[in-house]
Design goal:
One of its GO terms (cellular component) is membrane. The protein has 300 residues and is mainly α. 78% of the residues lie in helices and 0% in strands. Helix 3 crosses helix 4, helix 6 runs antiparallel to helix 8 and helix 13 packs across helix 14. The protein is globular, with a radius of gyration of 19 Å.
């Protein structure tokens, strides 16, 4: 999938918009518990990816790609497993605010890992955008942070695995694109690996099932629209964007999530949410505007 830098930025905007619908959709669930929610969502994600990638590549080539993908693909698949699973587990242990604050560390972790592993040097504008966007997210949810109980601490530590896994995944994508053409592998099946492993891991914890037919329908929608499609697009965009830049754009998921909740439920955003969201958007727009002015629109 040939893509310019501008196309990759636009793709990530669509990706974060789709990722962000999880919160407002789960508000309409009747009886699905957290692990059951994760199982049905991951299972639908895996089924949709198997059909999509099997149709694109053929069942035999897809299976061959998974078998011979090598360590890079399987490590990436494990990263997707952690992201698909740990987010929901953390929500059962601590507040949404604690989880989102922890997830906002993804751009910083990505910048550090990419610098250490790939030797990527980031311009000052990107470091500034990371700091400002992180401050914006902290402002949005700082008032909601819990009292620091032992359960909150465990939940925050679980949530910490999400930005670490995301940072590792983006760095692996960049590492793969830097290899020799004959050494590069299609990293898209890694998303399928992650979804399948997430479903298998949460199945014992989700049993016995309590979800209604309506719940299963909503969770299937999430698995296809909120995970399968945007994750495939994210892999495509990650071949073009620098790893920290992709992670920074991913913070828009939090801002969009607030907007969806505002429009789809009775919840109204507080002044802190509006002000913090404005900081995040401003940092992203400024960083990408400067990047687009300096980056030629050459297909990658």
């Amino acid at each position: 999938m040939a893509m310019t830098h501008r196309g990759a930025v636009a793709t990530m905007l669509l990706v974060t918009l789709l990722w962000s619908i999880a919160g407002v959709v789960t508000r309409h669930l009747d009886s699905a518990a957290s692990f059951e929610l994760t199982f049905w969502r991951s299972a639908a994600n895996a089924a949709a990816l198997a059909l999509l990638l099997g149709w694109q590549q053929g069942a035999t080539p897809l299976w061959r790609a998974i078998r011979h993908g090598g360590r890079t693909m399987w490590f990436s698949g494990l990263c997707w497993t952690v992201m698909f699973t740990s987010f929901m587990v953390a929500l059962t242990l601590t507040t949404v605010a604690n989880v989102l604050i922890t997830m906002s560390l993804a751009p910083l972790f990505t910048a550090v890992i990419a610098r250490a592993v790939l030797g990527q040097r980031l311009p000052g504008r990107t470091w500034a955008a990371i700091v400002v966007a992180g401050a914006g997210v902290a402002w949005m949810y700082g008032e909601q942070i819990g009292g620091g109980s032992r359960r909150d601490l465990i939940g925050t530590l679980v949530a910490l695995s999400v930005p670490l896994a995301a940072a590792t995944m983006w760095t692996l994508l960049q590492h793969n694109t830097r290899g020799r053409p004959e050494q590069r592998v299609d990293m898209t099946p890694a998303v399928l690996i992650g979804a399948a492993l997430s479903a298998l891991l949460t199945l014992p914890l989700a049993w016995p099932f309590q979800a209604s037919a309506s719940d299963v329908g909503w969770l299937t929608l999430l698995g296809v629209v909120q995970l399968a499609i945007p994750c495939v697009l994210a892999v495509a965009a990650g071949r073009v964007l620098r790893a920290p830049e992709a992670a920074l754009l991913g913070l828009l998921e939090i801002v969009f999530g607030v907007a969806w909740t505002w429009l789809g439920t009775q919840e109204s955003p507080t002044p802190a949410v509006l002000g913090g969201g404005a900081l995040v958007l401003g940092a992203l727009v400024a960083n990408e505007a400067m990047a687009l002015r300096r980056t030629p629109a050459v297909p990658a």
